[in-house]
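User: Last request for today: this protein with S-adenosylmethionine, please.
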Amino acid sequence: MSALSFYVHVPYCLRRCGYCDFNTYTPTELLHNGTLETVSGDYVDAVIREIELARNYAGVEVPSIFFGGGTPSLLPAPTLGRVIEALRQGWQISEDCEITLEANPDSVNSEKLIQLREVGFNRISFGMQSAKAHVLKVLDRTHRPENVSIAVEAARSAGFESVSLDLIYGTPGESLEDWRFSVETALALGVDHLSAYALIVEVGTKLATQIKRGELAMPIDDLMADMYLLVDQLCEDAGLSWYELSNWSKPGHASRHNTAYWKNANWWGLGPGAHSHIDGIRWWNVKHPTQYTSALLAGNSPEKDREVLTHSQQSDESIMLSIRMKQGIELSTLAPGQQDRVEEYSRSGHLDRDRWEQGFLQLTPQGRLIADRIVRELVV
Ligand SMILES: C[S@@+](CC[C@H](N)C(=O)[O-])C[C@H]1O[C@@H](n2cnc3c(N)ncnc32)[C@H](O)[C@@H]1O
Ligand code: SF4
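Assistant: Here's the final one, the structure of the complex with S-adenosylmethionine:
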């Protein structure tokens, strides 16, 4: 193995947003009258124990470390720094290793951002979601629109080399003009990277209940498509090019960590519910933070289960992941039957004609809207 990325899951949020079903818990969900300090007390000790389990791979290059959540920015910078330090004990973490923190815009201030830089973070990704207060309200977010510019400016002053924003489109009640305003506001902040995700209604969330009761209505597909095409156009005009279906960046600012996932590289996911993938073997940890922490502190592995990917699973996954990337799929890696099934899309404007001639399947903006349909043709 030549390289191994690390993901560190931080499973805490002060309040759960109505649309989110990520593996995250509020202090009171974990403990009656719990505070963040009481519920997260020995969490980092457990993560550091899990790092010990990865020592078999000590010495290989670490291109990226990503702290995601949950809300990693809730933990104190020195606590997060202990994890980076533990990784430095086993691996040579070079200057250009991308070390990202996911952050809620209202969970950082200038002082904390400076400390985060000091402990080693060089990239930060803020969950902006929208610049419109009425959209943030439906999403049940804790921050106000103005928190985002304050956080981005403070991150720049603290010396973050790469700043990213996450946006969500298709929130009930959001118009195309609302969405234009959000994207333009994000781009006007001069960020290096933007992610834009269509709102997914996850089963069991508050949002799903509100929709079921008829209190909120999801937008029609045509509006969602217009929103996608608009963000693509505005990003390209502002000098951020698409490099993955939902991600745009300035040159040199594509997320190295997410690219590792999309290229099916090797990564170790630390934390409850985290998934890992090394050379065709995938495993995942127990989901609950208490179970995770007690397993590790008792000297046991937190692994819940694992699977060895078959050759055909690996090839299907490679198609599903690489079609999302700008680079696309090299036609020579497809069987003749697969190429025949998708060739019509190169004539209908869904696949880039010139790239097809050069031997690559690359989606056009219209093609990205139907990426799932094209994948189904390829993996039948
Ligand atoms: C799990 S959050 C972690 C970062 C941070 N807690 C936050 O919310 O900003 C990462 C991103 O996932 C996206 N996300 C979560 N649930 C989603 C959903 N149901 N539909 C679309 N995007 C979602 C949001 O854009 C969010 O910024
Ligand atoms: S803050 Fe982020 S992780 Fe937490 S509930 Fe909201 S979207 Fe999910």
